[in-house]
Amino acid sequence: MALEDAKSEIDTAFTRKGLRGYAFENAFGGATSFLRRTYTKDLTGVDLAVTGVPFDQAVTHRTGARFGPRAIREASALQPYDPPYGWPTNPLEDMAVIDYGDLAFDYARVADFPDALTAHIATILAAGAGTVTLGGDHFITLPILRAYAARFGPLGMIHFDAHSDLWPDDDMTRIDHGTFLYKAVKLGLIDPKRSVQIGIRTTTEDYLGVHVIDAREVHEKGVAATVARARDIVSDKPTYVTFDIDCLDPSAAPGTGTPVWGGLHSWQAAACLRDLAGINMVGGDVVEVSPPYDTTGATAIAGAHVAYELVCLYHWTRQRT
């Protein structure tokens, strides 16, 4: 979309003609849709729907991730002017990407939330689109995986995190962000042999067969070795990418509920995501951005960059198929 067209349309989140093209509006004004994408519930012809899940009632410590989707969208207003750096691809030109808005749910009926989220994602998938979800705490990935596994079967997973989220919890009705992956494995939603965690730096007794590349290994062996191993693990089968922002060191992303020192630097995360191009990514999310704990906005900026990289990864997959 040319600058003169943007001037005449005014706020392309509502008035864009068609669903493709970059935006050239002031970053400090207008609606806070993700990357200035059109806000719409119409999934006709849509390749990818970005959606928010403002839920943080599963956290073990500090709340605030319910404000993550809004903050990530606001931070993304800095990005939608040019093709993404380091990618030989133009996802906003080549794909129909929309902002599907946030999941609507009754915060006082927490037990109803998982099914509501699964149905929300299933609606998008049934229309033939993929999803990139803005969280919210990490529990949200479990209901999302239910929808994806129903469509694709057991998935491979690339999981960026400081924590394994594999703590034992056989009560499948409990809503806890520290056990989402344990339940996903036990429920057969992901295949642990095709799943890998990157950036781990907390203790877990049993990884249930999930591969682990901890933060120290990333630092010592480097991005190239990390990505090569991850690609080999997930193979070319359908893979979901989930990125907990606390995978990053607190110096880069302090605004999260359970920060842990020794994490990935932002350049390492960026390089990992870009070098994963070519995996069969069917969907992804970025979670645990908690704006109240970061007055600088740096964590939300990181979250917006991660989400854009996920859009690029998804686009790369679409080009291959």
Describe it:
The protein is α/β, with parallel strands linked by helices. The chain has 11 helices and 9 strands. The protein has helices spanning 3-9, 12-15, 68-76, 91-94, 113-126, 141-152, 180-186, 215-221, 223-234, 266-275, 298-320, and strands at 38-39, 48-53, 97-102, 130-135, 155-160, 190-200, 211-214, 239-244, 281-287. Strand 5 (155-160), helix 7 and strand 6 form a beta-alpha-beta unit. The relative contact order is 0.16.
What is the 3D shape?
globular
Low-confidence stretches: none
Provide the succession of SSEs: HHEEHHEHEHEHEEHHEHEH
- Average pLDDT works out at 93
Order of strands side by side in the largest beta sheet? 1-3-2-4-9-8-5-6-7
Largest beta-sheet details: 9 strands, parallel
Portion of residues in helices? 25-40%
Broad structural category: alpha/beta
Strand content: 15-25%
Question: Could you tell me the number of beta strands?
Answer: 9
- What is the first-to-last residue Cα distance? 26 Å
If you compute it from the alpha carbons, what radius of gyration comes out, rounded to the nearest whole angstrom? 18 Å
Count of helical regions: 11
